[in-house]
Known about the structure:
By secondary structure, the protein is mainly beta. It has one domain (2-53). The chain is 13% helix and 33% strand. It has one helix and four strands. The model has no long low-confidence stretch (mean pLDDT 77).
Amino acid sequence: MNLSLTVNHEIKEIEINPNETLLRALRRNGYFGVEHGCENGGDGWQIWKGTSIC
């Protein structure tokens, strides 16, 4: 399936498989600065005093 999203202020169309994570799809398309979160799904990433916490 195709996914349309904005990355670094540019609209991108990427192909993503139903069982693929967004992280894997972004890295497959050359976005290696994407970081993996805590996998909890409830709290997400937060910035506290300049530090990313889960």
